[in-house]
Structures are given as structure tokens and as C-alpha cells.
Specification:
Structural class: alpha+beta
CATH topology of the largest domain: Uridine Diphospho-n-acetylenolpyruvylglucosamine Reductase, domain 3
Distance between the termini: 27 Å
Strand content: 15-25%
Number of domains: 4
CATH architecture of the largest domain: 2-Layer Sandwich
Largest sheet: 7 strands, antiparallel
Helix content: 25-40%
Shape: globular
Strand order of the largest sheet: 15-12-14-13-17-18-16
């Protein structure tokens, strides 16, 4: 960094965190998503922006950094696991000179309160680190994204991500009980408590899904749950999504409570379950004329799980679902969801010529899925620049809502492919709103959807701007993400 301002900034921050914890570039960015996700927003260029990376180890240091950055009028971008770098662009710098708050030194589990069923952690405890710790106590944090190895708790909250267990437990924001947050004035504030009850403005919701745009999360208290004693799952094929919606309505009406319900399209099942099994299964027999598949998972005490899966099977089959008898397919799909941790497997790389993956993550009512999915596919441009990777819907019960992961494979080194992706993304966002939903159900707005933010908040954008101004009057906290 060559300007006098930047030299002053670095000198100031070295005095706070030590020389070894200040640099002008990233250090050891997690690689899995950088390798498998396509860069469709110019984030590689953003990585080369002039910036000062500061690595605090305490809330006090964060407060001092924030106050110093404010006095220098330098924007601040919080960085955790960076797993959304190419997904939404949440931790991407948008200013030529900015402070990157690399929070990964703050990775300690502070307290486990088994009496209240809560755990308190620093922001950059990873999801996998937390669950390995809890496992020794027979507990779990029910968020299990594909990026769990590097995804941090604060990052998961900041983008309000999803996982297969969202059906029963909701998203990361739903598991937050309390937080310590540093605002742009450098003061620290406590929000929430050790219960789910937070009826005074629901303050913690201000910081969920906002990517550090209104405050920096420095400590989190989460609800944790016992590890289930038993788990059973089945996969069913359907000819159409209208029958899927009826089947899921039947499950809700019956009072059954699945741990996970996923709706992968035919192409998703092929890519994520069948490709690793091509030499051992009859693909044509499994796919047949099924266009949609439904994975249903129950967990808990064995007799209840057995009762639940059998009754769910009866409901599903009475609504047109066909059980996939070869359980290797079910296990392969579940392994891809919960163990492999990458959206592009070696088999997919070999099949699709090394193309990378990216997606748009809208959210709509399940009843609208059939028309929505058809419209999304029709919006794909002709040719081979974008290869359809299928749509997977993460189902939320009993609300009967779904988050659609609309994925494609592309070569992000080809500018025409990137242009086509972004044009398609705009159409998908328009469809999400047309069918009564949201353009940013998971992953927040980031740089990827910034141009469509007004579409997302046509009647409330002014209220959002007033909240932003009240909490960050100088617009220094992660600018260029929502406003």
C-alpha cells in the first residue's frame, strides 16, 4: 500500500495487533470453494484491490481497529471462512482502500452450558470444529453445510446459510440466542439471551444475513441439541412436482416431523448420487421417467423413527412417489450432502470438462415449484456456455417453503460464459419475486445480487437505508453489499 493514508493505517494497526498480524494481502484463504466455484462477479480482481488485512484476537482489539478505521475513513470488511467469496461475494472488498478484518484468530469455544443447552463461541469457530467438540458431550449444532470444514459460525449467521437439517432446525440465524456485536462507533452491544424469547424489536435479527453491513459479530451463543440415537432415510422418484407438493402437504398434515426433506431434480441425482456408482447400478432403471426425487430423513429414538419413515412412505406412495429400492443410491446422495463437502466431485469434473459451479438461491412456496423450475430452465440461454446442473430444493416444514439451488457449470475464464450467467441470474431473480418469494433466500445479497437489491426490497429499501444510516452513519461497514 503506497499512499500516506495507507502507511498511516498500517502503522496504527500494528500498534493494536502487532506487526505480524498486519499485511496488505490475504493469508491462506480456504481453497475448496475457490477451486470449485466459478467467479462470476469479478472477485479475483477485487482480491487484488489495495487493502490492509488486520487480524485481531479479541473484542477489545476489534473495538480499537474499528475506531482507528473510522478516524481514517477506511471501510471495513469482516472475513471468516470466505466460503461465500464466489457464491455471493460477501467478504469481497469493493473499495480500493479498505480494512479487511480477518477474524480467524478468534476461534475459541468459550463456554458450554449443558443446563440450558447452549454453547458460546468466538466468531471464527468453524462448524466442523464446533460439532467435533460437542460430539464428545453427545450434542450437536444442527447446521451442516458442504463448506463446514472452513465455514465459520459468524459467517454462517452473516449469510444465513442452509444445510440438509434446515427442514427441522431452520437456518443458522434460527439457532442464535445471543450475540456481542461491535458497531461502527467502536462500542460493543449485547443482544438476546439464553432463550428463544426476544420480543423487543428482535434485535439479533438485525445482524442475521446482513454480512457485517450493520455490525461486526464478535461472540455468539447458540442452541445445541442431543445427537439422535437413530436415523433412517428413503429416496422416492416422482413424475412431477405437483405430486411432490401434495405428498409433503400430507406429511405436514399427519404431524410427522422429518429431520430433512430435499427435492433434487433428475440431473442432481445423476450428478450427486449416480455418477460415483455408474459401474455398479442400473442408471436407467433408477431414473426411469422420474423427473423429481424426494429424500426424506427422520431421526430420534429408533421406534419413533421407524414409525415415522413407514408412515411417510405410505403418504408419499399414495401421492405418486416410487421408492428407490437400491439403497446405495440413497446412501450415495446422503454422503454427497453431508460428507464430501464439495459441489463439484471428481466424477463431475471428468464428465463436464473441468467447468466450475455457481448458483442462484431463491426461495418460493412449494406449491409454485413446478412452474418456477420450468421457467428457470427455459431462461437458460441456448448453447453450451452454461451447462444445467439441475435444481435442488431445501424444504422447510411445516411452512411448505423451499430454497431452490439453481445451479450451472461454466468456464469462468470465458467472458461470454460469465455474461450469460449474470443475465440468467437476473431472470431467475425476477422469477423468484414473480412467484411470491425472495431472490436471496441463502447467501445474502453480496456483490453477486447487489444490482438486484431494489428488486428484493422495493417497498422497504428506504427503511433498510435508515437502519443502515442509524447504525453506520459513515457507511464504513462492508459497503457495496446491500446499498
Amino acid at each position: 500500500m503506497n499512499s500516506r493514508l495507507s502507511e498511516l493505517a498500517q502503522e496504527t494497526f500494528r500498534g493494536i495487533v502487532g506487526t505480524e498480524n498486519v499485511s496488505d494481502d490475504w493469508v491462506e484463504l480456504p481453497s475448496i470453494h475457490l477451486q470449485t466455484y466459478a467467479d462470476v462477479s469479478g472477485n479475483k480482481i477485487a482480491m487484488r484491490n489495495r487493502k490492509c488485512v488486520v487480524r485481531p484476537s479479541s473484542i477489545k482489539e476489534i473495538q480499537e481497529i474499528v475506531r482507528a478505521a473510522r478516524s481514517l475513513s477506511l471501510p471495513m470488511v469482516p472475513l471468516g471462512g470466505a466460503t461465500t467469496f464466489y457464491v455471493s461475494g460477501g467478504p469481497v472488498t469493493t473499495e480500493k482502500e479498505s480494512i479487511v478484518l480477518d477474524l480467524r484468530r478468534m476461534n475459541q469455544i468459550l463456554d458450554l452450558d449443558e443446563f440450558s443447552g447452549t454453547v458460546t463461541v468466538q466468531p471464527c469457530v468453524t462448524v466442523e470444529q464446533l460439532n467435533k467438540f460437542l460430539e464428545r458431550k453427545g450434542l450437536r449444532y444442527p447446521h451442516h453445510p458442504e463448506s463446514r470444514i472452513t465455514a465459520t459460525v459468524a459467517g454462517a449467521i452473516s449469510v444465513n446459510g442452509i444445510s440438509p437439517f434446515s427442514t427441522k432446525f431452520g437456518r443458522p440465524g434460527d439457532q442464535v440466542l445471543a450475540m456481542k456485536v461491535v458497531l461502527s462507533d467502536g462500542e460493543i452491544y449485547d443482544v438476546g439471551n439464553k432463550t428463544m424469547f426476544d420480543n423487543v424489536f428482535r434485535m439479533k435479527n438485525l445482524f442475521i444475513g446482513t454480512e457485517g453491513c450493520v455490525g461486526i459479530i464478535t461472540e455468539i451463543t447458540l442452541k445445541v441439541y442431543p445427537i439422535p440415537k437413530s436415523r433412517m432415510m428413503e429416496l422416492f422418484g416422482f413424475k412431477n412436482l405437483d405430486d411432490v407438493a401434495k405428498a409433503l402437504q400430507g406429511i405436514v398434515d399427519s404431524g410427522l416431523v422429518p429431520e430433512s426433506v430435499m427435492i433434487p431434480e433428475r440431473q442432481r441425482i445423476y450428478n450427486e448420487a449416480l455418477l460415483p456408482l455408474l459401474s455398479t447400478v442400473d442408471v436407467s432403471e433408477i431414473l426411469e421417467d422420474n423427473e423429481q426425487f424426494v429424500l426424506v430423513v427422520f431421526s430420534g429414538d429408533a421406534p419413533i423413527v421407524k414409525f415415522s419413515i413407514e408412515n411417510a412412505e405410505t403418504i408419499i406412495q399414495s401421492n405418486g412417489g416410487t421408492k428407490i429400492r437400491d439403497h446405495r443410491v440413497v446412501e450415495s446422495y446422503w454422503e454427497n450432502l453431508t460428507q464430501i463437502g464439495a459441489v463439484v466431485t471428481p466424477q463431475m469434473n471428468a464428465t463436464y470438462g473441468g467447468r466450475k459451479y455457481n448458483s442462484i438461491r431463491g426461495g418460493i412456496p412449494i406449491r409454485a415449484l413446478a412452474k418456477y423450475n420450468k421457467a428457470v430452465r427455459e431462461a437458460l440461454p441456448p448453447g453450451d456456455k452454461l451447462i444445467d446442473a439441475g435444481i435442488t430444493s431445501y424444504v422447510f416444514l411445516p411452512q411448505l417453503d423451499a430454497i431452490q439451488i439453481c445451479g450451472v457449470l461454466l468456464n469462468d475464464g470465458d467472458s461470454e460464459s460469465v455474461v450469460q450467467f449474470n443475465a440468467w441470474a437476473e431472470k431467475v431473480c425476477e422469477l423468484s419475486k414473480k412467484f411470491g418469494g425472495t431472490i436471496s433466500a441463502s447467501g445474502a445479497i453480496g456483490t453477486l445480487l447487489l444490482n438486484f437489491a431494489q428488486m428484493e426490497m422495493p417497498g422497504s429499501s428506504e427503511v433498510a437505508r435508515k437502519i443502515k444510516k442509524a447504525l453506520d452513519s459513515d457507511h464504513l461497514l462492508n459497503p457495496g453489499k446491500m446499498f
